[in-house]
Amino acid sequence: MNQLFVVNLGRTRYAETWELQKKIFSARMEKRIGDILLLTEHDPVFTLGKGADENHLLANDEELSEKKIDMFWIDRGGDVTFHGPGQIVGYPIIDLSLHYNDIHRYLRDLEQTIIDVLGIYGVIGERENEFTGVWVKHDKIAALGVKVSKWITMHGFALNVGTDLSFFDRIIPCGIFHKGVTSLHNIVGKPIAIEEVQHHIVNHFAKIFSFEVKHISTEELETMLRHNEAAVEEM
Asked: Is residue 115, in this structure, part of any structural domain at all?
């Protein structure tokens, strides 16, 4: 059974976590580090993927500045989405070839992870044939956007737990005009601790991908990356 290092980053700025992702991605590509799952809540940010239509971001620069919302064009697939407090964002950086060489299956397995977690709370999560992500009736509760290069994965999923959904009013989420967004809090009618939901996500992700989980701190991850970089320099 392969080992998965899980790191809970807490609340982060998007730019910092993106840089960390890229460091881990390079190290995983060069087999200098094992498989990693990063978990975080971001400060408010809109991200636009490679195929995004900038017209789907309705907020202008003045509004972004006034409300202190960051905005980034990034290298994942998909259109525009929002990340913010109350939302669990997961970034699996894994060698997919150790499991299978199939990006579509990977997306379905990420969806299944979320569907299984929602089921714990009595919520029926579903797939939409035309769209990636997880839906509850006609509302999207989890978004997916990934990058895969030489079967190493990057970016990942975002599950709305207690997210302020008003931020989604300033975008056309994932470029989908005719559907809404929702959160776990909205559906069950009560707050649920982010940490509790994260715990379930890790367990179900590990089950689907047959991982043995090892939780490490941010400091341990940084030490691991530094040691691996030093080892390369000495070669």
From this structure: yes
Could you give the 3-state DSSP secondary structure of residue 178? coil
Q: Is residue 200 in some structural domain?
A: yes
170 domain residue, yes or no: yes
The encoded tokens of residue 180 equal 């809404």
The CATH code of the domain that includes 168 is 3.30.930.10
Residues 140-144: contacts with CB within 8 Å, 24+ apart? Answer: 140/173, 140/174, 140/176, 140/179, 140/180, 140/181, 140/182, 141/114, 141/181, 141/182, 141/183, 141/184, 141/187, 142/111, 142/114, 143/78, 143/81, 143/173, 143/174, 144/78, 144/107, 144/110, 144/111
What pLDDT does residue 4 have? Answer: 98
Residues carrying an active site annotation:
174
Unique residue bearing structure tokens 């035309």: 130
How many structural domains does the chain have?
1
Tokens of 102: 């199939």
Name the stretches of the chain with pLDDT < 50. Answer: 177, 234-235
Element (H, E) at 170: none
Q: Token pair for residue 196? A: 């509790």
Beta bridge partners of 68: none
Rg (C-alpha) for the chain, rounded Å, is: 17
The residue segments making up the domain with residue 223 are 2-229
